[in-house]
Design brief:
Elements: E1 15-18, E2 24-28, E3 39-44, E4 49-54, E5 56-58, E6 67-69, E7 76-81, E8 87-91, E9 96-101, E10 107-111, E11 115-119, H1 121-126, E12 130-134, E13 141-143, E14 150-152
Antiparallel strand pairs: 1-2, 3-4, 4-7, 5-6, 7-8, 9-10, 10-11, 11-12, 13-14
Amino acid sequence: MFRDALRFDPVKPSVAVYDIDGHCKRTFDADKIPEAFWCRLAFVEGGRTVLAYPRNWRCRGLASQSILPTDPAARTIYRLSVESGEVEALKFLAAVIDVAIHVDEQIAVSCGDGRLYLANAASWTTGAPTQLADVVSPALLQWSQFSKELLVA
């Protein structure tokens, strides 16, 4: 006998940003982001911008991988401007696996094809992040708090 499973499908994110007093500073309706995906959010640029990027799944070796994207088609990181309400997209060739944000606004991105990228403010303008390395498989990322060293696992 099979047990009924409840499945949660990804949806287009809808984001609201509040200040410390509980007042809504900006809302980003679901129609601002063109794709449905499971996302994480992070403040950058001193809280003036929010990044929305795909989540990952630590699958403990299933499918011969230690980490997989929750949405294999989610290859975009979105930059949401709290001040202007604009939404910008930075697309990658493969699914985004992990994102690490350094205090100086450098953004490291690991993709499902094993490539590592570095993005900064200029990347949003050019639409082209810098490829750092090819580490063969998807990786988890963490910046050092004290230097510009990036841990790749």
